[in-house]
Amino acid sequence: MGRLVYGASTRVDVDDRALAHLQLVIVAKLRRREGFAFSWRNPGSEGGGRRTVWIHPGVPVEFHFAEDAPVIDRAWAEALMRTADTAAGLHLVPEPGAGAGAEKPGE
């Protein structure tokens, strides 16, 4: 299980594979100096529900991974980017076709 740390107080535990895909989208948006909303579901241990933060280029973001870099599914990354480009903002969507269009990071 990986963790996304945003600013001083926001921590989100996310599966390493999903986190790697979120990282691609978040870094791409921040490189273009674009702010955007990011939403996720809180675990039941935190009361459930949903939480949203505004991701801004001036706030530090960290990605912590428990495992080595997973295989990247380009179609999933593109689907996540499409959500980030909407008014609702970035949120996890199901992986389109497990393994379809997959590549190792850096390839």
Report on the architecture of this protein:
With 107 residues, this protein is α+β, with helices and mostly antiparallel strands. The chain has one domain (2-93). 25% of the residues lie in helices and 28% in strands. It is built from two helices and seven strands, in the order ββαββββαβ. The chain has helices at residues 16-31, 74-84; strands spanning 2-6, 10-14, 36-41, 50-55, 61-64, 72-73, 102-103. The strands form three sheets. The chain has a three-stranded antiparallel beta sheet. A two-stranded antiparallel sheet has the order 3-4. A two-stranded antiparallel sheet has the order 6-7. It starts with a strand and ends with a strand.
User: What global shape is seen?
Assistant: globular
Strand content: 25-35%
Task: Describe the main β-sheet briefly.
Answer: 3 strands, antiparallel
Please give the domain count.
1
Distance between the termini: 24 Å
Helix content: 25-40%
Order of helices and strands: EEHEEEEHE
**Radius of gyration using CA atoms only:** 13 Å
Summed over residues and divided by their number, the pLDDT gives a mean of 88
Spatially, the strands of the biggest sheet line up as 2-1-5
* Uncertain regions spanning at least 5 consecutive residues: 99-107
Number of strands: 7
- Our count of helices gives 2
Q: Structural class, from helix and strand content?
A: alpha+beta
